[in-house]
């Protein structure tokens, strides 16, 4: 069974050249007929394409001939819908999360491993480094094999015909990892990830396709121990946050105490400097990309 849904954001028709009672006679050679079109002032979703659904914008030209087949051609073009992160106050706040795993060996507890992850803010723009602060407190006899960082994109397609159905697709759009942390060791560090504009379309104006993003951090433990996992929602935009401190500060070092609680989240009880702390496949022709300014261009 096939499921479908459709939204039309604008559909206009214009006559560039029109003949008289006797029709239109065009001499041999090249003829250029310039035209322009002003996009609707309301927010439009960015161009987006997958095998499951897409948002496309196209110009179709039709040369109508009497008693003959018409000539047709079309051109796809891109729309990059802007998102000003400064209009989203919730993404300016820092975030910290921690998780603890009790490690046992031969039915005897050997200690705990605490994973703490923090971000100076949760809103990021195109090309901006996503700096993730991490701290491992390994008080067990087991080494942490590695720590894996992933940014997961979730796309939901909402069909309306013949009945309502939602298809959810998850995709990893960025990944980094670190080396092992030995038993009875403690370590803090910063890891950076970057995501391109092509991976973060603004679909907020689309009612049948939606997107969301999460940073997932996982401390890998040897079998048979369970891995330690932390997940944090993040937001992407085209205009970066201003007046923020992008430096990563270790909350454990600032508090001079250990974070030893089950998975917790929210605004950490520490302060930063400055104002705020900081399955796809396409067989169709693709339009030329009109990318927003890079992070460096937007901040200068």
TrEMBL record:
Residues 270-300 are annotated as: Disordered. Residues 282-294 have a biased composition (Low complexity). InterPro entries: Arrestin-like_C, Arrestin-like_N, Arrestin_C-like, Arrestin_domain-protein, Ig_E-set. The keyword Cell cycle does not apply. It holds the Pfam family Arrestin_C. Transmembrane segments: none annotated. Keywords: Sensory transduction. PANTHER family: ARRESTIN DOMAIN CONTAINING PROTEIN, ARRESTIN DOMAIN-CONTAINING PROTEIN 1. Belongs to the arrestin family. This is Arrestin C-terminal-like domain-containing protein. It comes from Ignelater luminosus.
